Amino acid sequence: MNIKAKKSLGQNFLIDKNILNQIVSTVKIYDKEILEIGPGSGNLTSYILHKNPKKFYVVEKDDNLSLLLKKKFNDKIEIINDDILKISEEKISKNKLIVFGNLPYNISTEILTKWITNMNSNIWFESLVLMFQKEVADRIIAKSNNSSYGRLSILSNWKLNIKKIIDIKPQSFFPKPKIDSSLLFFTPKKKFFELKSAKSLEKLTRVFFSQRRKMLKKPFYQIFKNPEEISKKFEINLNLRPQNLEPEIYFKLAQELENLRS
Question: Is 2 within a domain?
Answer without folding.
Answer: no
